[in-house]
């Protein structure tokens, strides 16, 4: 996660991109630039853009009559839209078999993102602006989960939430509850909290990076002019940090949209299936690979708007992009 | 002590409350992992009740310890292999892309830049499924396995070096390079002798980022793995956590954790040393990407 | 669900139209045609190109009433006699925890080769990966209901029985089974029943004494502790039997509707966990009652936490044998690089001692003549309270069998399952 992957706060006087706006084009750049960029651009075209076309060819393709595996159709003229139409017509209504999972995904991702922000903002704000000499240590500890694999962190919770796990032991120690809760069987709340636990570091770090760059002089100015701590925050810090907050939310909820393993590990019940589970369940099932592709396209379409917003806001704050 | 009394008199002074929230959060985020790591030293096969300290799951158990269970070792080595290979391919590609895009103005580089940012925010599952379909539906000189995994990972990680290095280039500006060329250097040697050395800290940082991120990766490596010999640690954890895990799995995860921490610590030391040499103040924050 | 003739989102495959279109494409767009050609050459098989598929009618469906002996194609002959084993590594593709490590080690030592076991979660996933040809797996362990497709697509090799003398160790009915006459392509691995397993400390009623023991899985008292096998046909067949539908391969849309309704009720009543790891989840306490394979309940006793007695485990299967019985196979895949070694591995696992050792590890009974079903408890293979998990030879004459379904029907069944798994 990097500050360069975040939009600049408005009025930030020390934008790193600022110097490059003033410079003229480097000499000798005509050939050298394209030449150096070529391999990377070719790589992205080959392994990022072209695969999306293959998804289209599969979604709009046919199915082998015996094995019912997909037969991609490469020519758009011959595309058959049976599979996407099937998926689209089975989202709502009496045949709405996919609707509940899609709605669930929206609810889970929204709730988890809100909780993430609720946790991440105060912490990032504190560490970036108020923690003083503890900043380095706290930052190191905040970054640590970033380097611990997601699977390890989920495994840790699987152990804690097991029937004879520590969570139940602690609860029964208090004597208030029987302490035999089946945490790992189809509980939405466990999956949502699992998502929060898994993704909140991905929100804290960019928030920290963004808040750390806010110009102190403006806030101090507000304080000098008589604003109390709260109104200085509300009138100066919050508006300035809004772009960073939005970018952080996007960076957290976009990967959540494709998540299937959190629900798999912490629940395993269809009653907590998300759209990622639909994709994961069908992509290797004979006859349903095309539907998996259709779900991929669906998620892509839904996330396209936020992604474009993100790309635009980051590019705009990056002077090099005309 | 004085801070304690201050807290007593006014517990709701903002920073105190925020400090408490931060500490509770850190405990919540780190304690479960520490507990899981502790259970890798459990003498019994339970991962929930403590039965005494032992190295059984690392070495002692003749069949199921990490040392003796081939499948766990295979997973460990596959993880490290993917980490190294991906970093080796990704960093040169990304650095060249960054320098190239920095020097190249117009529509094409600007859309290439957008493409790069899109690859950064695209939900990983979508890219992984797309690449899985490519590999299973299109005739390619390679199939599922290490090659496919490296290709997927490089695609997903390319944005790190490219964007970190570009940000650094932006702060360097074009003047130095122009000065070098005024002194008679060719554009290429100006890059090599002037710009590249200044980029080294950013390159090191992005290499560490890529490496640590790759060894944690799950979605891409799972979809693009072939047989069990190409299933890295995260996939092994996922498969076993749903079946019948022993603390050997915790041991495996703990070893990965140590590997990631070592990589970051060594990378950071190198980074700081380089920073001192080039006269820049560097903090661990740079590893969170504060360029 | 709507049962339109164009079943369930599986686009009908109009061969002629595609052939015509492919021809047009070939003339008009040479570049794309080259791409198409490239796909035809791909190892994916699915890239046979439009129109290259085998017609549906070509798929023979075997059943006990309609035994099938599969042809041996000219281009897929068994290996010659007396060949030297390859150097390996032998790649085995199997369910997790379904092959004893000691048994593998013994084979490795005997032939000085490596054996690599890869695992899959369900056979749908497995067959898709095998078809991509991505990995040269040598041996595959499916149920018998896939053999028709595998033979038709020439994904498996006919066996040379001279390498497998131990085949005579198995029940006579498996030496030339109805799904594979003369055992041309397969040897049996394990036999099992599918019933209901539970823990007496979580489920107070005696499930076996209920009028319809399957109903216990629908009992909302057990919400959050119910498990269902993550295999569409096994799970849906159980639902069918519970609802009084005894044709577990039914082509009747009304039957499927009954199954679908019962699945929806199941979801609402108990929020079941859909998994294949009940052999761990039940003893670990995450499940209290679960649809189970007999082998898994046997296996479950080894996964109980320390100090927990195996007395609490119970298993029910209809005493008259009118339930689901199955057997898994060992097949030699054509894409593998070690056919001779693969034959030897099959023979190794059919060896009397080896298969008993393996039984002890995986809990799944091999159909070996030397095993006396009545003395499994006395011999220590089964505890007293799990005597019901023994698999009797005679049940195979009366029980319901899961068969390979026709393509359309298969799609319809899968669709109902997908809906269930989506949590609708």
Secondary structure elements and their pairing?
The complex is a heterotrimer of chains A (322), B (291) and C (424).
Chain A: H1 18-22, H2 29-59, E1 62-63, E2 70-71, H3 82-89, H4 99-130, H5 135-147, H6 150-161, H7 166-174, H8 188-212, H9 216-224, H10 229-257, H11 261-266, H12 275-282, H13 289-316
Antiparallel strand pairs in A: 1-2
Chain B: H1 2-9, H2 14-39, H3 56-60, H4 70-103, H5 107-121, H6 124-137, H7 146-157, H8 159-172, H9 175-182, H10 187-216, H11 219-223, H12 233-241, H13 247-277
Chain C: H1 15-28, H2 30-40, E1 90-95, H3 101-111, E2 115-120, H4 123-132, E3 139-140, H5 147-152, E4 186-199, E5 226-229, H6 232-242, H7 253-270, E6 273-275, H8 278-284, E7 289-293, H9 294-300, E8 313-316, E9 324-332, H10 339-350, H11 352-362, H12 395-398, H13 407-421
Helix pairs in contact in C: 1-2, 6-7, 7-13, 8-9
3D architecture notes:
The complex is a heterotrimer of chains A (322), B (291) and C (424). In chain A, strands 1-2 form a two-stranded antiparallel sheet. Chain A has helices at residues 18-22, 29-59, 82-89, 99-130, 135-147, 150-161, 166-174, 188-212, 216-224, 229-257, 261-266, 275-282, 289-316, and strands spanning 62-63, 70-71. Chain A has a domain at 99-274: MetI-like fold (Orthogonal Bundle). Chain A is 67% helix and 1% strand. In chain A, a hairpin with a 6-residue loop joins strand 1 (62-63) and strand 2. Chain A has 322 residues and is mainly alpha-helical. The model of chain A is unreliable at 9-24 (pLDDT under 50). With 291 residues, chain B is mainly α. Chain B folds into 2 domains: 2-57, no CATH class; 70-288, Orthogonal Bundle (MetI-like fold), CATH 1.10.3720.10. Chain B contains 13 helices and no strands. Chain B has helices at 2-9, 14-39, 56-60, 70-103, 107-121, 124-137, 146-157, 159-172, 175-182, 187-216, 219-223, 233-241, 247-277. Chain B is globular, with a radius of gyration of 23 Å. With 424 residues, chain C is of the alpha/beta class. Chain C has 2 domains: 90-190 and 326-378, D-Maltodextrin-Binding Protein, domain 2; 192-324 and 401-421, Periplasmic binding protein-like II (D-Maltodextrin-Binding Protein, domain 2, 3-Layer(aba) Sandwich), CATH 3.40.190. Chain C contains 13 helices and 9 strands. Chain C has helices spanning 15-28, 30-40, 101-111, 123-132, 147-152, 232-242, 253-270, 278-284, 294-300, 339-350, 352-362, 395-398, 407-421; strands at 90-95, 115-120, 139-140, 186-199, 226-229, 273-275, 289-293, 313-316, 324-332. The two termini of chain C are 12 Å apart.
């Amino acid at each position: 996660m990097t500050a360069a992957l975040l939009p600049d706060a408005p009025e930030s006087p020390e934008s790193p991109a600022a110097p490059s706006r003033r410079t003229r084009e480097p000499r000798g750049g005509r050939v050298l630039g394209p030449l150096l960029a070529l391999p990377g651009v070719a790589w992205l075209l080959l392994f990022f853009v072209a695969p999306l076309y293959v998804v289209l060819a599969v979604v709009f393709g046919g199915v082998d009559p015996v094995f019912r595996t997909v037969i991609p159709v490469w020519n758009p003229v011959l595309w058959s839209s049976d599979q996407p139409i099937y998926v689209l017509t089975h989202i709502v209504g009496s045949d709405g078999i996919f609707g509940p999972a899609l709605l669930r995904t929206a609810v889970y991702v929204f709730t988890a993102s809100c909780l993430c922000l609720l946790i991440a903002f105060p912490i990032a704000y504190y560490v970036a602006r108020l923690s003083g000499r503890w900043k380095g240590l706290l930052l190191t500890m905040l970054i640590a989960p970033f380097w611990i694999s997601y699977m390890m962190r989920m495994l840790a919770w699987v152990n804690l939430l097991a029937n004879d796990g520590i969570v139940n032991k602690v609860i029964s120690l208090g004597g208030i509850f029987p302490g035999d809760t089946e945490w790992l069987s189809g509980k939405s709340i466990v999956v949502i909290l699992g998502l929060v636990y898994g993704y909140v570091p991905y929100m804290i770090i960019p928030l920290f990076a963004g808040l750390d760059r806010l110009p102190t002089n403006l806030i101090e100015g507000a304080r000098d002019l008589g604003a109390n701590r709260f109104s200085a925050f509300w009138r100066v810090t919050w508006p300035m940090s809004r772009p960073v907050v939005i970018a952080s939310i996007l960076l957290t909820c976009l990967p959540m949209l494709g998540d299937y393993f959190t629900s798999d590990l912490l629940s395993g019940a269809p009653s907590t299936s998300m759209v990622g589970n639909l994709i994961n369940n069908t992509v290797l099932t004979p006859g349903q690979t095309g539907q998996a592709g259709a779900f991929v396209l669906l998620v892509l379409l839904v996330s396209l708007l936020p992604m474009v917003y993100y790309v635009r806001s980051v590019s705009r704050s990056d002077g090099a992009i005309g | 002590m004085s801070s304690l009394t201050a807290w007593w008199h006014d517990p709701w002074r903002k920073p105190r409350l925020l400090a408490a929230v931060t500490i509770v959060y850190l405990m919540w985020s780190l304690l479960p992992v520490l507990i899981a790591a502790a259970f890798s030293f459990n003498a019994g096969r339970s991962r929930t009740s403590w039965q005494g300290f032992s190295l059984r799951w690392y070495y002692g158990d003749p069949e199921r310890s990490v040392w003796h269970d081939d499948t766990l070792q295979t997973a460990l080595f596959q993880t490290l292999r993917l980490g190294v290979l991906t970093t080796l391919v990704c960093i040169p590609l990304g650095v060249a892309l960054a320098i190239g895009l920095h020097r190249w103005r117009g529509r094409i580089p600007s859309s290439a830049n957008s493409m790069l940012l899109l690859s950064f925010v695209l939900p990983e599952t979508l890219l992984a499924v797309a690449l899985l379909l490519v590999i299973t539906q299109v005739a390619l000189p390679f199939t599922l396995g290490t090659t496919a995994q490296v290709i997927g990972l490089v695609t997903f990680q390319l944005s790190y070096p490219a964007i970190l290095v570009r940000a650094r280039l932006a702060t360097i500006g074009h003047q130095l390079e122009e000065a070098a060329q005024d002194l008679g250097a060719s554009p290429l040697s100006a890059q090599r002798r002037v710009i590249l050395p200044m980029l080294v800290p950013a390159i090191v940082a992005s290499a560490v980022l890529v490496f640590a991120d790759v060894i944690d990766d799950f979605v891409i490596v799972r979809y693009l793995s072939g047989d069990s010999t190409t299933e890295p640690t995260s996939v092994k954890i996922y498969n076993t956590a749903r079946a019948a895990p022993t603390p050997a799995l915790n041991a495996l995860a703990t070893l990965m954790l140590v590997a990631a921490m070592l990589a970051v610590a060594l990378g950071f030391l190198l980074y700081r040393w380089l920073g001192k040499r080039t006269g820049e103040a560097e903090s661990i924050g740079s590893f969170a990407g504060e360029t | 669900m709507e049962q339109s003739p164009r079943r369930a989102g599986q686009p009908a495959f109009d061969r002629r139209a595609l052939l015509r279109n492919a021809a047009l494409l070939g003339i008009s767009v040479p570049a794309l045609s080259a791409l198409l050609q490239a796909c035809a050459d791909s190892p994916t098989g699915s890239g046979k190109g439009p129109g290259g598929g085998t017609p549906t009618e070509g798929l023979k469906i075997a059943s006990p009433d309609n035994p099938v002996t599969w042809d041996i194609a000219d281009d897929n002959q068994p290996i010659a006699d007396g060949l030297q084993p390859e150097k390996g590594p032998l790649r085995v593709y199997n369910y997790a925890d379904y092959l004893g490590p000691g048994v593998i080690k013994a084979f490795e030592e005997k032939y000085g080769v490596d054996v690599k076991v890869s695992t899959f979660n369900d056979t749908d996933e497995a067959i898709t990966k095998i078809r991509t040809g991505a990995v040269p797996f040598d041996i595959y362990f499916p149920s018998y209901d896939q053999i028709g497709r595998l033979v038709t697509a020439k994904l498996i090799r006919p066996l040379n029985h001279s390498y497998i003398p131990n085949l005579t160790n198995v029940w006579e009915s498996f030496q030339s089974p109805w799904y594979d006459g003369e055992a041309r392509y397969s040897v049996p691995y394990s036999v099992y029943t599918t019933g209901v397993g539970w823990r007496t400390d979580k489920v107070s009623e005696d499930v076996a004494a209920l009028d319809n023991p399957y109903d216990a899985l629908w009992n909302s008292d057990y919400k959050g502790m119910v498990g269902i096998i993550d295999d569409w046909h096994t799970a849906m067949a159980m639902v069918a039997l519970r609802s009084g539908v005894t044709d577990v391969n039914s082509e009747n849309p009304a039957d499927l509707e009954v199954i679908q309704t019962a699945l929806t009720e199941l979801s609402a009543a108990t929020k079941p966990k859909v998994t294949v790891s009940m052999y761990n989840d039940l003893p670990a306490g995450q499940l209290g009652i679960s649809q189970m394979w007999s082998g898994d309940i046997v296996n479950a006793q080894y996964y109980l936490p320390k100090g927990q007695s195996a007395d609490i485990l119970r298993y029910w299967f209809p005493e008259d044998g009118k339930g689901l019985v199955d057997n898994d196979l060992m097949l030699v895949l054509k894409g593998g690089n070690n056919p001779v070694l693969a034959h030897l591995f099959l023979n190794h696992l059919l060896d009397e001692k080896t298969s008993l050792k393996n039984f002890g590890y995986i809990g799944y009974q091999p159909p070996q003549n030397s095993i006396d079903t009545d003395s499994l408890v006395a011999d220590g293979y089964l505890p007293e309270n799990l005597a019901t998990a023994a698999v009797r030879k005679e049940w195979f004459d009366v029980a319901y069998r899961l068969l390979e379904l026709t393509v359309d029907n298969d799609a319809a069944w899968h669709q109902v399952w997908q809906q269930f798994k989506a949590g609708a």
